[in-house]
Amino acid sequence: MQWTLVIPLKPLTRAKSRLADTADDGVRPGLALAFAQDTVAAALACPAVRDVAVVTDDALAGPELAELGARIVPDEPRGGLNAALRHGAAVVRASRPESPVAALNADLPALRPAELARVLDAAAEFPRAFLPDAATIGTTLLAAAPDRELLPAFGTDSRARHRASGAVELSLDAVDSVRQDVDTGEDLRAALALGVGPRTAAAAARLLIPGQ
After folding, report:
1. Which helix (H) or strand (E) holds 145?
2. Would the pTM of this model clear 0.85, i.e. be above it?
3. φ, ψ for residue 105, nearest 5 deg
4. In this structure, which of 4, 59, 84, 190 has its CB flanked by the most CB atoms within 10 Å?
5. Looking at the DSSP assignment, which residues form a beta bridge with residue 14?
6. Is the predicted pLDDT of residue 173 greater than 50, yes or no?
7. Which CATH code for domain 3-204?
8. d(CA 85, CA 152)
9. Which residues, 6+ apart, have CB-to-CB distance to 192 below 8 Å?
């Protein structure tokens, strides 16, 4: 099964505010872009991924991610994360209704294509399925079969909300790179320990991160 991934990305100037203890206002936009670039590059290298649609209005990120091979979908709803995901999935399904669709976080800089393939292969067994994040509170991936709506419920306690919506929680070992999103300095250190992509590595090298 070949998947289309929908990746939402808010304007870089508003991204990653919880990294303020690790990266200042002048650094965070570049760091958020590096996360997204490494996420998209790894996703496109995954054998289970047909293509990637990034929902964003950011004038810098759009061209950079398009250069990697992503399709850029303008965030027309401008109503937050879940509205962006619903819009992106609808755009994808309008041209390819038979495609299975998965929402993926844009902040997975340690993402490994083989681990993503394992998650998507497991998700293909269910109408809707999701993978909880490393903190076991949130969600990093939500998948829907061709005949099912995505029904994203990202945000606070999204693990519980996706489970309540009927999506199957995937219990997989050795897919840490797909779980490790980055919101805080501690998350970034964990991602660095896993091994991040080249753009994040270069951006993080300019930061003073205890324990790096």
Report:
1. none
2. yes
3. -65, 150
4. 84
5. none
6. yes
7. 3.90.550.10
8. 7
9. 110, 201, 204, 209, 212
